[in-house]
Design a protein that fits this description.
With about 525 residues, the chain is an alpha/beta fold. It has a 6-stranded mixed beta sheet. The chain has a 6-stranded mixed beta sheet with strand order 9-10-12-13-15-14. Strands 22-19-26-21-27 form a 5-stranded mixed beta sheet. The radius of gyration is 25 Å and the shape is globular.
């Protein structure tokens, strides 16, 4: 790549003003990520601290998002549009169409390029390949290899020209993809080392004399930051995966990093001045624009298509099946704590499978739910993956090791439990945190009654096929020798049937997971 230091040229008066204007070209990058099939506008509530009241309004939806994109396509001179992955999975239409709904809507938006995310793999690689064949824009992924066909699973990179700026684009999914999906479905796929692939691609971009290298990344901020520190030739990283709204771009070394939250609530706008003679970003500024429905005219074609798709599921999904007396709230982030919705789901799983214990991963519960009527669609949004329950048996000694690992912050994902109660101290060293475990435990009049876990006894457990396929990541013990049995019904169908039966649902925290270190604080 051409490397000319602009300040030195200024000092030496080498360039005529006209030459400088020719080499400094504006570029606007519009971007979003983690849309999760929120194709129609939805309500958000924001607390107004000045007026001391809550304000509710509609945001998002494909038509609204495209309305904002088209606004800036019209206003700005040179515009590139990027989607950083996880368009699939989140609302019923994505599951029912196995992601095709999102490809059809993407073809209306017409982004410059997109990257795959981990949730694009939720319906299996063959289904994803069919969807990629329908896409009318480059969908990039440079770190997944199709071992069966001896090629990249998707187009790894591409070069596009926007307003005279030659952009080298490359896409990445999370390196930990094997523990983010049910890897058993991914026969023949292999993960490639990001640094190795990027080194080769940067060399390729240099040979092609690109002006700007842009990574469309679904790796998350931590990975993106590492890449920026290692690879000074990368100019921009348009990120996703964390669902984190970066309101002001992050600058690491020579790299500008952006990310735009999730579910289409924000559209990212990054304004650059590109030095095409120096192949660098001369200046940058960026912000997130909230996609308020009231402030834009939605694109009619996209809105109509989204509504047509939504109409396919609206009737069945709007059916009321019960009433929630207490709001369901998840245990979020790094919290090693029970949640009332996690307690309810784990209890239903254990009852359905008739096991001693149940484990439900936090990440399998995708949304909270306010008190009120529960619809079929609410449960589809809460449990969109269509997981199967899996049963297995382990000795108490292994179960104790599994639970002890769950008390650490390093575990892949925290699990909600049923049929047991454990007490731990997060202030103690690893291996010494677990204080007590009671099995077949349940609260009676605020007093827990159960049997102390016995090392030699065999206990039956139910979880879902995502957890069982990533057993070591969740519990740090090998699954070798464990016999897993997959049950036929989908998790959400079991939950829906239970709500239909019980009608009134009340859920509470009952102390089945207790960290005494937090109690001391």
């Amino acid at each position: 790549m051409k490397r000319i230091l602009l300040p030195l040229l200024f000092a030496a008066n080498v360039c005529h003003p006209q030459q400088l204007s020719d080499r400094l070209i504006p570029l606007t990058i519009l971007h979003w990520n983690d849309f999760h099939s929120y194709n129609v506008p939805y309500k958000v509530t924001v607390h107004d601290s000045l007026r001391k009241r809550d304000t509710t309004y509609f945001v998002g939806g494909t038509g609204t998002l495209l309305g904002y994109i088209n606004k800036y396509r019209h206003i700005e001179k040179n515009v590139a549009v990027f989607n950083a992955g996880d368009d699939f999975t989140g609302t019923p239409i994505s599951a029912l169409t196995r992601g095709r709904s999102q490809v059809e809507l993407m073809n209306i938006i017409k982004p410059t390029a997109a990257s795959l995310g981990n949730h694009e793999f939720d319906y299996g690689p063959e289904s994803l390949k069919e969807n990629l064949a329908l896409a009318q824009q480059p969908v990039l992924c440079a770190n997944v290899w199709d071992g069966k066909n001896k090629r990249f699973f998707a187009t790894p990179s591409t070069i596009v020209n926007v307003g005279g700026i030659k952009l080298g684009l490359i896409g990445f999914v999370p390196p930990e993809l094997p523990i983010l999906v049910v890897w058993d479905k991914m026969q023949g796929l292999q993960m490639l080392n990001v640094d190795s692939v990027l080194t080769l691609k940067i060399a390729e971009f240099k040979r092609e004399r690109v002006d700007l290298i842009v990574i469309i990344s679904h790796m998350g901020i931590a990975h993106d930051t590492l890449v920026a520190r290692k690879f000074g030739d990368v100019n921009v990283i348009v990120g996703g995966h964390d669902h984190f709204p970066i309101f002001k771009p992050i600058k690491k070394n020579r790299t500008v990093i952006v990310q735009a939250g999730s579910q289409g609530r924000w559209l990212g706008k990054l304004d650059l001045v590109v030095d095409v003679a120096g192949d660098s970003v001369y200046s940058h500024s960026g912000r997130l624009i909230e996609t308020r429905l009231s402030d834009i005219t939605p694109d009619p074609v996209a809105s109509q298509k989204a509504e047509e798709l939504e109409s396919l599921v609206r009737g069945s999904m709007s059916e009321a099946i019960g009433e929630l007396k207490t709001p369901w709230k998840r245990s979020r982030g790094e919290a090693r704590a029970e949640s009332n919705v996690g307690n309810w789901q784990a209890d239903v799983m254990r009852s359905f499978a008739r096991t001693d214990i149940a484990f439900q991963n936090n990440g399998g519960i995708r949304t909270d739910l306010p008190a009120g009527l529960i619809t079929v669609g609410d449960i589809w949004k809460m449990n969109p993956f269509g997981n199967h329950f899996v049963t297995f048996a382990v000795k108490g000694s292994m179960l104790k090791a599994m639970i002890e690992f769950q008390t650490r912050g390093s575990t892949r994902e925290f699990v909600q439990v049923s049929g047991l109660r454990y007490v731990f101290d997060s202030s103690k060293p690893r291996g010494e945190r677990l204080i007590s475990v009671e099995v077949n435990a349940s609260p009676t009049d605020t007093v827990w009654r159960g049997t102390p876990l016995q090392d030699d006894r065999v206990y039956t457990v139910v979880t879902n096929n995502y957890v069982s396929s990533n057993f070591e990541a969740h519990f740090e013990v090998s699954s070798l020798g464990i016999q897993f049995q997959t049950l036929t019904k989908l998790d959400r169908d079991v939950f829906i049937e239970r709500i239909r039966k019980d009608k009134l649902i009340s859920s509470a925290l009952d102390g089945r997971i207790t960290d005494i270190a937090k109690q001391r604080n």
